[in-house]
Amino acid sequence: xxxxxxxxxxxxxxxxxxxxxxxxxxxxxxxxxxxxxxxxxxxxxxxxxxxxxxxxxxxxxxxxxxxxxxxxxxxxxxxxxxxxxxxxxxxxxxxxxxxxxxxxxxxxxxxxxxxxxxxxxxxxxxxxxxxxxxxxxxxxxxxxxxxxxxxxxxxxxxxxxxxxxxxxxxxxxxxxxxxxxxxxxxxxxxxxxxxxxxxxxxxxxxxxxxxxxxxxxxxxxxxxxxxxxxxxx
Length: 233
Prior knowledge:
By secondary structure, the chain is mostly beta strands. The protein has 3 helices and 13 strands; from the N terminus they run ββββαβαββββββαββ. It has 2 domains: 14-102, Pseudouridine synthase; 106-233, 2-Layer Sandwich (Pseudouridine synthase). Strand 8 (128-130) and strand 9 form a beta hairpin. The protein starts with 13 loop residues before the first strand and ends in a 5-residue tail after the last strand.
């Protein structure tokens, strides 16, 4: 296994036009093959360079310094950590892109949310639309929103802290879907500055959302592969 890549010496990461703190944490290589990488992205790192010229530091820029053919086929939000698959060839990019488009890729996330979820499992089926008046936020909108579905399963409840650890499986892949869906049912993810209640945003020093598992067809053999990395929280 190749050693983790050191942080790039590029300018600080940023979201949209606002410059955000530099991410000093390295990308961890979980698996390396000739056609793709499986990585564990740290929180506080963009998947691709942002609009601000200082937004260069990202998964794409760091990996392309070591792997010339590295491409981004899916993204995790700046604040979200976890498993990503990185194609290294054009053929792998095409194959994995089709797998995402056909929704045969399975994604599971771990999150810690405010409050105690009553049901052990369930689904959140609420349409999501861009919030033009509060960019870059999104909103639940029955009129203009796109269908969005999230399944959840309770892993543990902490009655003292009044929080719940949940496993999330998004069926659709809307921007901010998991954060917005959990907030909409009254259980915002801890550490989220966009969608929060009176105390949830300050309850953690980072967004407690991590892409724990990714299943997808091998770009050559078609065999189902599993990338897995436990959350650091």
